[in-house]
UniProtKB/TrEMBL annotation:
<dbReference type="InterPro" id="IPR025777">
    <property type="entry name" value="GMPS_ATP_PPase_dom"/>
</dbReference>
<dbReference type="GO" id="GO:0003921">
    <property type="term" value="F:GMP synthase activity"/>
</dbReference>
<dbReference type="GO" id="GO:0005829">
    <property type="term" value="C:cytosol"/>
</dbReference>
<dbReference type="InterPro" id="IPR004739">
    <property type="entry name" value="GMP_synth_GATase"/>
</dbReference>
<dbReference type="Pfam" id="PF02540">
    <property type="entry name" value="NAD_synthase"/>
</dbReference>
<keyword id="KW-0658">Purine biosynthesis</keyword>
<keyword id="KW-0315">Glutamine amidotransferase</keyword>
<dbReference type="Pfam" id="PF00958">
    <property type="entry name" value="GMP_synt_C"/>
</dbReference>
<keyword id="KW-0436">Ligase</keyword>
<dbReference type="InterPro" id="IPR001674">
    <property type="entry name" value="GMP_synth_C"/>
</dbReference>
<dbReference type="Pfam" id="PF00117">
    <property type="entry name" value="GATase"/>
</dbReference>
<dbReference type="GO" id="GO:0005524">
    <property type="term" value="F:ATP binding"/>
</dbReference>
<keyword id="KW-0067">ATP-binding</keyword>
<feature type="domain" description="GMPS ATP-PPase">
    <location>
        <begin position="198"/>
        <end position="388"/>
    </location>
</feature>
<keyword id="KW-0547">Nucleotide-binding</keyword>
<feature type="active site">
    <location>
        <position position="173"/>
    </location>
</feature>
<dbReference type="InterPro" id="IPR017926">
    <property type="entry name" value="GATASE"/>
</dbReference>
Amino acid sequence: MTEKVLILDFGSQYTQLIARRIRELNVFSEIVPFNKVPQLDDSYKAVILSGSPFSVREERALRPDLAEIVGKRPVLGICYGAQYIADFYGGTVSRSLKREYGKANLGRIQRADGLFADIETGSQVWMSHGDTIEHLPEGFELLASTADVEIAAFGSLGDRFAAPVYCIQFHPEVYHSLDGKQLLENFVLKIAGCRGDWTPAHFIEQTVEELQQKIGDDRVLLGLSGGVDSSVAAMLLHRAIGDRLFCFFIDNGLLRKGEFEEVERSYEGMGLNVTAIDAKQEFYSALAGESDPEKKRKAIGRVFIEVFEREAKKLTNIKYLAQGTIYPDVIESVSVHGPSVTIKSHHNVGGLPEKMGLKIVEPLRNLFKDEVRRVGGELGMPAHLIGRHPFPGPGLAIRILGDITPEKVRLLQEADAIYIDKMREYGLYDQVWQAGTILLPVQSVGVMGDERTYEQAVALRAVTSTDGMTAEWSHLPYEFLAAVSSSIINNVKGINRVVYDISTKPPATIEWE
């Protein structure tokens, strides 16, 4: 049985970060909306209440019934979670006269055991809240203070509840809280008593067993993209069911230069049963004259389904369709404030499962991207495949602003190949989360030799991130950017200008469309 820490999401921008920090302790964490608390069976060892953009003083505050949680398992309330626990049990919470935001230090730690074991007085923490807890509920005691916040941490460790309750006004999950990892380790491993044995090897062993039980003697079909997620999903399924896994690798004409042939060779070396399908012209025909980004996505999705369905009819007794869905896709599909919302149109394969009468299997749906990579490494996959940058489902179609033509695809492939090759040459590829080149729908004047040119411009994009939910533009060396620009302009006829995108996410997205 896999031990779990349940995280109730109240809409905080840091909720995923809490989950990631718990998993770094080799303990599985599960995020659910605050109003969808599952039955706390024996697998759940602790519960964490996240922060929130709301105030407990607001009429629209998020108010679950804590009686279903508190006392059943050790509980840790963070920021809003702490304030709501105080309010729920009769304490006093009021709006602060000033917003308590930024770095602070624990000036007093009342109890140097339990949650604060091995954490020194003066430890730096990160505050981000607009409410203040003025009076504690009955049965709770003060645990720590800062210079500006008297009740920075409190808890009920006595007889009021059958399991301890800890509450903190700061965020241990962010790097600015220097002992945040120690605090979470104290709570998860010591207070909740988790074993900390959820490792890539454990995940593989458990997942293979579950896949074998679920699939039995049936056959599974998987669409490979060349990316990390579908490749690792394929290897897990291959280990579980062997040659009863059938893979399609469709060339939509929108991949990077030489990518189809390179990845096809990698798949063959991994022992996968892969059918390579050249469908470039079908995709180009469907995209002809279309400039709207969402319509381009839908056209690609429609043709993918048509090609996939046509090729699938050549196989018999397929019962399951496998997908490389990962945890951020799952989280994004659930709204904290109500029913599920639609996953981005390029995450999954539309209505294909229903249309073909197939059941879905998603072996990676509980993993973050970096965890997928670690599982791939444990499976013995080649480093160049598991270390690949994320690549959008619609491919270069959303990196060519405007309509798509084979010539535009060729131009972008050539420029992008130079960019990525130079990145590897300079040792920068593994230092960024994602990099790519965008072909802009503008032409500009240039001079080459004694001739005037009027050609295309491209934008280079590189970002650092952990999971793609937020991203910072990568501060690449000027000499590297100069070398890339010079090489593209000198070697790709039709491009005479290169610019670098220095936008963060948010407000900008990683991709331009």
